[in-house]
Amino acid sequence: MVELALHLDPVADTPLYEQLYGALAGQIRTGRLAEGTRLPGKRSLAASLGLAVNTVDTAYQMLVAEGYLESRERSGFRVLAWDGPLPAAPAPLPEPPAAPQTAWRFDLSTSGVDTGLFPFRTWGRIQKELLYSSPQLLDHGPRQGDEELRRQAADYLRAYRGVQCGLDQVVIGAGIEYLVGLLARLLGGAAAVENPGYRRTVKILENNGVECIPVDIDKGGLPPRALEASGARVACITPSHQFPTGVTMPAPRRAQLLKWAMAAPDRWIIEDDYDSEFRFDIRPLPSLQGMAGEDGPVIYLTTFSKSLAPSIRMAAMVLPRPLLGRWQAMYGSYSSTVSRFEQETLGRFIRDGHFTRHLARLRSQYKQRMETLAEALEAAFPGRVELQGRHTGLHLLLTLKDGPGETAMVDRARAAGVRLEGLRGYYLARPEHCPENTVVVGYAALPPGDIPALAEALRTAWQKT
Amino acid sequence: MVELALHLDPVADTPLYEQLYGALAGQIRTGRLAEGTRLPGKRSLAASLGLAVNTVDTAYQMLVAEGYLESRERSGFRVLAWDGPLPAAPAPLPEPPAAPQTAWRFDLSTSGVDTGLFPFRTWGRIQKELLYSSPQLLDHGPRQGDEELRRQAADYLRAYRGVQCGLDQVVIGAGIEYLVGLLARLLGGAAAVENPGYRRTVKILENNGVECIPVDIDKGGLPPRALEASGARVACITPSHQFPTGVTMPAPRRAQLLKWAMAAPDRWIIEDDYDSEFRFDIRPLPSLQGMAGEDGPVIYLTTFSKSLAPSIRMAAMVLPRPLLGRWQAMYGSYSSTVSRFEQETLGRFIRDGHFTRHLARLRSQYKQRMETLAEALEAAFPGRVELQGRHTGLHLLLTLKDGPGETAMVDRARAAGVRLEGLRGYYLARPEHCPENTVVVGYAALPPGDIPALAEALRTAWQKT
Lengths: 465, 465
Fold this sequence. Notes:
By secondary structure, the first copy, chain A, is α/β, with parallel strands linked by helices.
């Protein structure tokens, strides 16, 4: 009969049976209690430790359940074979400190939106109605996304973006990034990406084994000849509003890209239509997908994160019919990545006309903000500032003639509490082609009231020294 | 001056300027209107078509904006270079008909849960509070998941699953499938998977370029020798409740697997702890991750889809500290895939003690259901039925001694409106090792009141002929 050295703490949070279990399991794992060792009977151990017999019994049962002990008629509990102690784990690494958050006075990043414009009341009402009226939404939904949302998204995209598609072509996913990751595996091949362009798309494609070839854009966007020369089989583009330069691709250029795609089998264009809801003149350009048709070579992507809120992770993709079979074969068994309640909330939000009203409101607010900002900047730098990309989207390119250079502009702005990026950072290759003195100015998260102070802060930061 | 053949429909939903724009763009794309062609002046065209001048002007402006036309002082609007018509798109493929939904009388699939047990009132209240009280949740959140949810999940997993981790190791994602996809790219290598096992995990790993090697399990789960022999560098296992056999891996076997992982560099174990909340005897086994420690070779995965609802797409992963750097490098720029409102709702649901109470309720309900079902089945097939996997999880293995064979059992059950799967379908390799007359019986989605009728339906379906 073995003598057990056990230290239990009757006032600890961990129940005594857990403590006893842990102590015994530990001694078995470390080999202190060897195979075949017979443990004291429940009663005697309980007595010696001043525990209830039940406590000891529970601990013993747990050890039996987990294969530490065997229980034999009459002969009590024996330690089972344990082939040698575990190698000691390395000393725990310390938990790294959280990165310090800079508090910016003005946020000109391109990722933010004005969350104050979110339709809290309507959204909350629909959400509440659904939770109580539609328990079936707790169950598994269609893998490509809930039908109501796909129908509403398809109708919206047909009407406002000229997208041509049937319900079966629409896929809802938790953000464009997620969908691009799936597309990368689906299409394979090397992908041409716009230079300058969106670094994260490149990261996702590369993470998924797709080689990315940066192709320099011109004033019409991605040039077909350069695309052809790149040898890529897939082209990722932002034709409505090139990111970050704001170039809109003219129709003839669009046709040339479609020809490129149709000129060889298995060539595809990924159209990232990330912010075309925000067109401030006549109306948004119809999508390239619409020009290609539902059987054409274009995969259309859009997100609701900019029109609703960044934290609402919903994006929609329209797959060309010829790709549906391949998609089903590869991803047909994947569950949807978006909560059905949120899908249905958005579906009804669009269906009942709230979405188009909401967009109209956003457009007028953002347009006004853009114009106020442009005026303030032109006033702060008379004749020295040039602004590109005013017609669409939620950011501008600001070029300061005879400015102190991009790096100095960015550093000085940041020192003054202005969060912004230089254009050079968006060059995936050949940064020497980057125009001088140019920064990217996102205004979606900038409160209108802050604009005068911002302009003054930049004027001071960038004045000639 | 060209003669335009245009057919506009004044009563169509599409506004006239859109129709005019579309007609002209179409004629330019097809080459019917050649480069350099001069279009009629706005007034004359308006007059000849009986339109307002404004309507024509808007259409012309759109065509200019999109690069179809150029506008010259005095000389009006000319068609721009369009290099040849687009190749005609193939005739649209028909939209495939939706697959017919079988209406089952009884659902014994393993994917369902009893959504009637969902805590509607509490969940809805927290959700509502958050929407109005926490607008900051609309903005981008931490990429690994919101801090409150990660803290609560970590505390819960430490207390109830013996998981050892800090906040920085927890990643929230839109379902285990999504996280497994990221892990596949992160870890690479060939992966040993349990045979029989969960086909979808295999599909995801293979979709992400990971070769899967099915390893036959024994009564203790994945055998270390076979794992070693497989040459795999990663092992995907379900130690708490092997899917679908229900085997619980004994502690000595767990230690052997950890030794396998520690015996060579870059070996990893993915512990899929998908349903261990549902342990009906003493208490759930502590996780393998807990035995390995926070710097050990185990990646821990769990989901809230079974404890809350399948449509709520939230899963948690615990990364070993040694992998955090690699994770950051690869996925540090990815946005979270889960809505922050839902993350925060769950975070508070756990924090305020609702989750553990909810789990206790689920456990007692499901345990009762399992016992009622087991009794009903044993009564329906006196001495002929054998049930495995009663202690954990939400499904049983049912073996019918001298039954008509698995295929016949499944077919006859389905003919009687019972949705269930045979065990053979879970064999990824060597189906000949599959025990005869065995089916997988999930009872989570089975209303208790249906149990007698279900047992009777199976008795009739499976009676000797």
